[in-house]
UniProtKB/TrEMBL annotation:
Compartments it resides in: Membrane
Span list, region Disordered: 479-500
GO BP annotations, alphabetical order: signal transduction
Endpoints of the signal sequence: 1-19
Naturally occurring in which organism (per UniProt): Pangasianodon hypophthalmus
Membrane-spanning parts: 439-464
Gene Ontology CC: membrane
Keywords carried by this UniProt record: Glycoprotein, Membrane, Receptor, Signal, Transmembrane, Transmembrane helix
UniProt name for this protein: Receptor ligand binding region domain-containing protein
One Pfam family per UniProt: ANF_receptor
Amino acid sequence: MLRFSCLCLFLWALESSSSQVKEDVDVLVLLPQNNSYMFSISRVAPAIEYARKQLARGPLAGFNFSVRYVNSECGVNALYALVDRARRDRPDLILGPVCEYAAASVIRVASHWQIPVISAGALASGFSDKNSEYALLTRTAPSYLKMAETFATMSQHFGWKSVHLIYLDDKEERNCYFTVEGVHALLEGQHDISVSMMDSKESLAYLDEIVKSIHEHEVVIMCTHTDVVREIMLMAHRQRLTTSNRLFFNIELFNSSSYGDGSWRRGDKYDNEAKAAYASLNTVTLLRSTKPEFENFSLEMKKSYQRGDVDVCEGCNNINMFMEGFHDALLLYALALNETIHSGYSKKNGTEITRRMWNRTFEGIAGQVSIDANGDRNGDFSVISMTNREAGTYETLMNYFGTNGSFQLLPGFNSERFTLRGAPRPPLPEHADQSSGGLGLSAVTGIIVGGLLGTALLMAFYFFRKNYRITIERRARREQCDGKHRQLREDSIRSNFSAA
Ligand SMILES: *[C@@H]1O[C@H](CO)[C@@H](O)[C@H](O)[C@H]1NC(C)=O
Ligand SMILES: *[C@@H]1O[C@H](CO)[C@@H](O)[C@H](O)[C@H]1NC(C)=O
Ligand SMILES: *[C@@H]1O[C@H](CO)[C@@H](O)[C@H](O)[C@H]1NC(C)=O
Ligand SMILES: *[C@@H]1O[C@H](CO)[C@@H](O)[C@H](O)[C@H]1NC(C)=O
Ligand SMILES: *[C@@H]1O[C@H](CO)[C@@H](O)[C@H](O)[C@H]1NC(C)=O
Ligand SMILES: *[C@@H]1O[C@H](CO)[C@@H](O)[C@H](O)[C@H]1NC(C)=O
Ligand SMILES: *[C@@H]1O[C@H](CO)[C@@H](O)[C@H](O)[C@H]1NC(C)=O
Ligand SMILES: *[C@@H]1O[C@H](CO)[C@@H](O)[C@H](O)[C@H]1NC(C)=O
């Protein structure tokens, strides 16, 4: 009997060791060296190393990752780095780049060579088209289109009609351009949209004009430098725009030290005025979640910064989405590679590995990560606002969950804040506690089209379409005249990239 169970144990051990696949995996990481980026090599490398060590302890320990970090900067050097690196042996996996223009060329070549690319960046809408050029891209951070769902769902619930988008364009990385492009893409068609572009070299030059165009719209959505947000809010406040029937949002996805308590404070004579103005401002940011394992991760990251050469400054070494995303990227790849090899394909079959990374949910370092059927991570976002006007402190009012398109309302939520006077009022949602499902409104299932209603919707659509076109035309004409306003280009990133 004892012998029999020993034999069983032996067989079981044999079985489990033989099912553990052994494979050397050559990973090329393309990120900038410059520590002014939140996703610089020195910040992200410890996260990738952490994932590698965790994997080496687990059931996938048979994978031997050799990770090479190459400075891609943020432009075309990323492509040169890949091509130089791949002269003899092509890597099995590419992590990064994050910057859109660097990513575009790298992903095109990698897809052509069938090398999987996983990035916590490349967030622009154009990368969602996986049919050809970006076929082997998997994104482990939520893209700008996913972020825009937060606005689309709010708009659907609160009945927004007109939206003014304001963004700062640095003409280099163009993060705000791509951010606002996502919102534009999702709100287009159902809203009267206008757009103001600010040149980063003279961002405040046309502030008057921009604030003037706020007058005509119900909802203002900004993506710009924090100091510019303050200037806009101050001017809007002086013109009593913050007290009337209007909603202000700014989008600040990654840098958690630039919003929240005291973000209005500069130590100048306008602080009090800014505090009052910011009472009307809502910030959309990534929902950050943690779990017990995250503490250890976070501690290990801090330790490696102290060892390394990263400046330790307040806030700038907080764990950010890029670190989490690249950590999770390696886990996801390992899961998919394991399955791929078990199904009899090789690690060189990037198409098969990529297919297995898509449409799956797995446990990341900060919580569940759900990759949609198009290889893009579903995003969770928070709306954060000032809830104490005297102290100027902030709370999260609601969370948006991309996997089911619903909002969770938190105790600080007050529907008055988001209801436009004059607009058709939706029934007031109940105050939900932390655990309940919230509005339960789904962006996908929210519309029931009956016969009559369908006709009304069609007419409404036509009307808005027309209205929208008129706005565009008017804006376009104004742009030709004085060049101060610039319509958000409607062409895809693809053609922008081609032109770049
Ligand atoms: C890093 O980037 C910042 C901002 O883009 C720039 O001012 C700085 O010169 C760069 N540093 C190096 C070493 O290239
Ligand atoms: C892991 O890969 C590296 C580089 O390919 C190799 O030098 C090393 O021997 C491998 N380690 C194991 C345990 O296979
Ligand atoms: C984040 O925001 C803070 C406050 O605005 C700023 O000082 C810091 O430079 C920002 N960090 C990065 C990496 O952009
Ligand atoms: C983190 O976990 C690892 C093992 O999982 C352990 O060796 C290490 O000491 C932990 N670090 C901290 C700071 O708890
Ligand atoms: C590796 O793949 C095999 C076959 O699909 C599966 O049974 C096993 O659970 C996988 N291992 C891990 C750690 O996911
Ligand atoms: C890669 O995997 C796919 C299945 O997803 C298969 O059809 C194809 O033949 C494989 N390619 C190679 C080169 O093995
Ligand atoms: C995604 O996975 C689910 C099951 O997990 C499956 O029902 C669905 O068909 C898959 N979708 C695609 C597009 O592969
Ligand atoms: C949506 O998903 C989140 C997190 O995955 C969950 O907490 C919430 O209860 C879900 N809401 C609904 C209405 O299913």
